[in-house]
Amino acid sequence: MLSQTQLASGRWWAALLWTLLTLGGANAADKCTTRRCLANELVNKKLITQPQRNNCSEYIYVSSIAYQTLKVDTKNLRLGCRLQATIEWTDDDLYWDPSVYPYDEVILPVSKVWSPDIFVTNGISASTHNSFRDLIVFSNGTLRHSVVMAAEVNCEFNLFNYPFAEDQCPVAIQTWSTQGCGTTMEIGKVEVFDGSHGDWETLGAYLHSSDNKYYISVVLKIRQQNPFITLLLPSILIILADMVSFALPLGCGERNCFKVTLVLSFTMFLLILNDQLPGDSECSPVIKNHFCVCLVMLVVSMLVSMVLTRVAKDGGLIFCCSSRRAKTANKPEGADQEVTADISVIRLDDPEENRMHRKVTDFLDAIKAKEADCERNEAFADTIDKTFFWFYFILGTLYFCAMITVMVKYECNVNHLDFW
Question: Strand 182-192 relative to strand 57-73: parallel, antiparallel, unpaired?
């Protein structure tokens, strides 16, 4: 059997061996160089505040912004957009030695480190959220992150040329503070994706800066086909139908009924399109004035047709004036005798037959006089009607040519940067 001394010596050596193994395991644990160990070490620093430098300012670099137009509200003059920005900044406290951790980058949760805030300056309503829950940290302490901003911007669109409108709308971007202990920002490039949306097309988004303030100038152009078909073309066709209605006979009431129907149809057309017409701005849409002029032309044409119908029937231009028919009825008997003086008289022995013959002759003469008077009235009304038709046709053609030229060529200037 072993002596007490040998047992004590064995226990001592066992304790020494256990101690060495424990220390070796601890040292091995302290020398963990995996990415997870590196990430845990950076997270444990709890760097959730802005890096504090000597000049108390942090430089933020927005390497790229992907712009997308979501909607264009021409009634309320608002632009809805979405921007995805890639942001880079440096935190020296997140630096690690590549000789200890042989990695160039590591992934950390966004909530465990500080990240800068950027937002839309002229946004009526805006929201910003992280594109991903994680971000990338490089060995030199540079961080790269991506955020998505959805904003609705109050934009004073130049809608004077609607539906041939083309204008630009600024989307201003800034950080939370640019003075003192804040952040300074620089933007690299802006890209546009999914440029077509509804009736509007995004032609481009260009980055501009003014006094260290950045804004994206979004160039928008309305698709002309849909508004032209639904707004401008119906007004042209209704005026054209009103011009062609002069081919209907003036004496009957069909023309007047047709013109009244056109006026009522155009009025209902304007009531239906009231919610679809663009709102008023510094450059109010000229198409509203165009609709007003078209309605006036239709009403004037209808009134002229009604008055000429009266002229063709009675010869009076205005209903309150005495007509030629009334004047004929009020002529003295001597005038009738003068008119009938050239009629040959057949002598009859019977006085009764003589009176009957005279009555028949007077009746026939009255009919002939009435027919002649009606023919004169109709000829007079027809002359005025043809004159008014050519005047209406030439004036309407010149008006439409001038209006379309103004819609396409005229430029109305709007100050889009008045929010600064």
Answer: parallel
Residues forming a β-bridge with 89: 143
Q: How far apart are CA 67 and CA 84, in angstroms?
A: 7
H or E element, residue 62: strand 57-73
Per the listing, tokens 């669109």 go with 157
**Structure token digits, residue 108:** 């950390």
Q: Residue 48: CB partners within 8 Å, gap ≥ 6?
A: 112, 113, 114
Whether 216 contacts 205, CB under 8 Å: yes
Tokens of 420: 């600064």
The radius of gyration computed from the CA coordinates of the chain, to the nearest angstrom, equals 45
Q: How far apart are CA 134 and CA 411, in angstroms?
A: 48
Q: How big is the chain, counted in residues?
A: 420
Q: How far apart are CA 67 and CA 305, in angstroms?
A: 57
The phi, psi pair for 185, rounded to 5°, reads: -125, 145
Residue that is written with structure tokens 């200890």 in the block: 100
pLDDT higher than 90, residue 352: no
Number of CB atoms found within 10 A of residue 415's CB? 8
Tokens representing residue 128 in the block: 């910003």
Task: Write the DSSP assignment of 334-388 as a string of letters.
Answer: HHHHHHGGGS-----S-HHHHHHHHHHHHHHHHHHHHHHHHHHHHHHHHHHHHHH
Torsion of CA 98, 61, 181, 177, to 10 degrees: -150
DSSP one-letter string for 131-170: SSSEEEEETTSEEEEEEEEEEEEE-----TTTTS-EEEEE
DSSP string, 319-342: TTSPPHHHHHHT--HHHHHHHGGG
Cβ atoms of residues 238 and 266 within 8 Å: yes
Strand (E) or helix (H) holding 60:
strand 57-73
* Of 296, 161, 290, the residue nearest 235 (C-alpha): 290
* 12-70: pLDDT as tens digits: 555 555 555 554 444 444 568 888 999 999 999 888 888 887 777 888 999 999 999 98
Where residue 74 falls among pLDDT bands split at 50, 70, 90?
Answer: confident
CA angle, 159 then 164 then 166, to 5°: 60
